[in-house]
Amino acid sequence: MILTSALLSSLWLCAQAHAAASFSPSPHRVPSTIDRLEPFRPLAKPGDPRKGTKNLRLAIMGAPGSGKGTQSKRIAIDFGVKHISSGDLLREYARTDAEVAGYIARGELVPFPIVMKVMKDRLSKPDVQASGFILDGFPRRLEDAIALLEILGELGTPLDAVVRLEVPEEELRRRVLGRGREDDTEEVFRNRMRVYREQTEPVFSYLQGKVNFLTPDVTVPDPDAAYRNVKAALDAYLAAR
Ligand code: AMP
Fold this sequence. Notes:
Layout: H1 2-23, E1 56-62, H2 68-79, E2 82-85, H3 86-94, H4 98-106, H5 112-123, H6 126-131, E3 132-136, H7 142-155, E4 161-165, H8 169-177, H9 186-207, E5 212-214, H10 223-240
Parallel strand pairs: 1-3, 1-4, 2-3, 4-5
Helix pairs in contact: 2-10, 3-4
Bound molecules: adenosine monophosphate.
Adenosine monophosphate is lined by residues 64, 86-87, 90, 103-104, 107-110, 115, 137-138, 140, 144, 192.
């Protein structure tokens, strides 16, 4: 009798435990990348802390090989702004993330939440807020551009201008294949050009009428001559501002 009631009560306990287990929340939801991201922190307090200085908030845009990296590093020195290259930041990130390394190696765009994370981290640094910046490689697709304008708009610190570099495709191929970076093969170049046409070119139509565009002549093969034109365009913009 005692044995039977002990058996019954242990059976009852088992049934309770089973019922509890079947009502527990499903453990199968895998957190997405966006779950791991912090909310976007403001780049600067509303208002423009740069009054009286010539600090600039710029983006440079152009196809692979158009000279974004070379030209923006020189702009950063001459105009005292921080050079922020999404490609450099993502290559750094890829050192500990094989998935991101794979996107870069194939010439595909890295998923938006990861790009936003690295850009947010860099843009929210005090040095960037104090001096202004030139974004190199970002925005690269519509959602980058929408997010960027939204954030800067909320802060009341809009982008001053986009420097657009236009170079014929044959010249781009010649420059890229002569560069020797790991992702500078013919196949990856073709893929990056396709991504540029499909994803980046629509960004120009979106930004048209919303930001100033500077279009210096950078078709000259000599990077110094190209830079003289870039600098002249920025000087003229600043003089008119
Ligand atoms: P870049 O140094 O600008 O030529 O970029 C090198 C690679 O980094 C690109 O081919 C993409 O795989 C990745 N990348 C750079 N910027 C972005 C971005 N804004 N969005 C997505 N992927 C990017």
